[in-house]
Amino acid sequence: MIPISGMPVLTAAQMRAAEDSAIAAGTSVGALMQRAGHGIADAVLRLAGPHEILILCGPGNNGGDGYVAAARLLAAGRKVRVAAAADPRSDAARVARNGWGGAVEPLATARAAPVVVDALFGTGLSRALDAGAAAALARLVAQATLSIAVDLPSGIATDTGALLGDVPAVDVTLALGAVKPAHLLQPGATRCGAVRVVPIGVETASAAHVLAAPALATPAPDSHKFTRGMVAVMKGRMAGASHLAATAAMHAGAGYVALLGPTIPGAPHALVRRRLDDAALDDARIGAVVVGPGLGRDDEARALLGRALATAHPLVIDGDALHLVTPPQLAARTAPMILTPHAGEFAALFGAPSGSKLDAARAAAQASVAVVVFKGADTVIAAPDGRATLASAGSAWLSTAGTGDVLAGAIAAMLAGGRAPFDAAGAGVWLHAEAARRAGPAFIADDLAAHMAGIFA
Ligand SMILES: NC(=O)C1=CN([C@@H]2O[C@H](COP(=O)(O)OP(=O)(O)OC[C@H]3O[C@@H](n4cnc5c(N)ncnc54)[C@H](OP(=O)(O)O)[C@@H]3O)[C@@H](O)[C@H]2O)[C@@H](O)CC1
Ligand SMILES: Nc1ncnc2c1ncn2[C@@H]1O[C@H](COP(=O)(O)OP(=O)(O)O)[C@@H](O)[C@H]1O
Ligand SMILES: [K+]
C-alpha cells in the first residue's frame, strides 16, 4: 500500500495499455490478477484485524481480483465469504473463481460483515449498476465498519470521477497499479476514502501526477530581499482582495512585495505601497505580477489589466481579470502566465468544460499557452505541454471568500522565487492546501496567509 503523493495518474485506456504492454512482454492476465488479488489480500489483512470479511465480486476482472483475494485471505486463516450477482465473464476471472472454490452467496441477499470489499466493477464499468446491485452494495457498505474498494468504488467513471448512480463512500480504495483520475476528481474522489496504490508490477508512465509536496528551502545565507523574489500586486477596486494576495505573497516567502495603486490603511507595514506608474510597473526586479483579485470589471479595471498584459513580467491572472482578458490578448504575450480560474471564471474564459476536469484544464492550457490552475474541491494544474498535476482533496473550509486571492499571492511568490510556472503553480497550490489543513475549521482567508509562514519551519 503506497501513498499516492507524486504518483502517476492513468486513465482507463492508459492503464489498459500499460497492462497490455506487460502482457506482450510475457506476463499473463492471470499473473497480473494474482498480483492484484494478493496485494489486496495483504492490504485487507493489515486493515481488517480479525473480523469477518465479505468480498463482493463482479463479472469482470475486478471481480477476478476479488476471488483471488478471497482465496488468499482464507489460506491466511481469515473468516471470509464471497457474494456475486453473476458468474465471471472473462477467462481470467473464471480461473480466479475456480481458485476460490468456496460458496458464493447471491449478492442481493448477502449477509453483512464487519469488513466489506467491493470488487464488483473497476475500470471496465460501462453504465450504472442495476438497481438490485446498487441497493445491495449500499446496504452492505452501510452495515460494515470498514469498507474497502478494489481499484475504484463501483459506480464511478474512471476518467471523469462522475457518479453513474448512487455510490456509497468507502473508507479505503486500493488503486491497482496506478492512481486513476476518479480518485482525485469530484464527485468520485469523496466516495474513495483514503486512496492507496497496490503495485501490480506494471510499468506506469503518465504526463499527469498527483500533486506532491514541493521542496521548500529556507533562504540561502547570502540571500537579500530581491533574490528571494519581488511580487507586484495590481490594486483593484476591492482593496481587501489585493491586500490578501499581497500578504499571502509575503508569507509564502517573497522578499519584496509591492502593492501598486492608491494605498489604504491596515495592511502590514512591510507591504511596500507604490503609485501605479510606468516606473513602478517596469521595475526589472519584479518576478511576478498579480492582476485580478478585487480588480472590478469596469473600464478602469480593463485598463489596469491592459497595463499588466503590456509588461514583460510573468503574470498571475486571477479573479475579475479572467472575465476581462481575451484569448487574443493571451496569445499576444510571450512572458509566462498562470491563470487561476474557479469553475465560473473557467467557463467565462474558455467556455463550458468538456470531458473530464483534467481534459478541460489541459485543453485550456494548450489554447492559452499558459499554466492553468483549475480550482475547486479538485484542483487541476495543467501546462501547455500536456503535463498536469491533480491535488488530493483538501480542506473544504477553503470554501470561504478570499482564499483564491491568497492562492494567487502564494503562486506569485513561488514564481518570483525562481520556480518555472508549472512548478510554481503546484507549489502554491500545495502550500495553500497545507496552510488550510493547519488552520483547522472555520478559518478566514486572512488566517490562511499567516499559516503558510509556519510551513517553512
Ligand atoms: N486488464 C488487466 O490485465 C488487469 C485488470 N485488473 C482488474 O480488472 C479491472 C478491469 O477489468 P474489466 O475490464 O474486466 O472490467 P470490470 O470493471 O471488472 O467490469 C467489466 C465487466 O462488467 C460488465 N459491466 C460493466 N458495467 C456494468 C454494469 N453497470 N452492470 C453490469 N455489468 C457491467 C462488463 O460487460 P459489458 O456489459 O459492459 O459488456 C464486463 O463484463 C480493473 O479495474 C482491475 O480491478 C487487474 O486484475 C490486473 C490485470
Ligand atoms: N470544497 C473545497 N475543498 C477544497 N478546496 C476548496 C473548496 N472550495 C474552494 N476551495 C479552494 O479555495 C479557493 C477558492 O478560490 P476562489 O473561488 O477564487 O475564492 P475567492 O474568489 O473568494 O478568493 C481555491 O483555491 C479553491 O481550490
Ligand atoms: K470496485
From TrEMBL:
Domain of life: Bacteria
YjeF N-terminal domain mapped to chain residues: 15-208
Binding site for K(+): N62, D118, S154
Cofactor binding remark: Binds 1 potassium ion per subunit.
Alphabetically ordered keywords of this record: ATP-binding, Isomerase, Lyase, Metal-binding, Multifunctional enzyme, NAD, NADP, Nucleotide-binding, Potassium
Positions of AMP binding: K375, G376, A377, D378, T379, G404
Cofactor(s) the protein requires to work: Mg(2+); K(+)
Matches recorded under InterPro entries: Carbohydrate_kinase_pred_CS, CARKD, Nnr, Ribokinase-like, YjeF_N_dom, YjeF_N_dom_sf
Gene Ontology BP annotations: metabolite repair; nicotinamide nucleotide metabolic process
Enzyme Commission number(s) from the entry: 4.2.1.136, 5.1.99.6
UniProt name for this protein: Bifunctional NAD(P)H-hydrate repair enzyme
Organism: Sphingomonas adhaesiva
Lineage: Bacteria, Pseudomonadati, Pseudomonadota, Alphaproteobacteria, Sphingomonadales
Gene name for this UniProt entry: nnrE
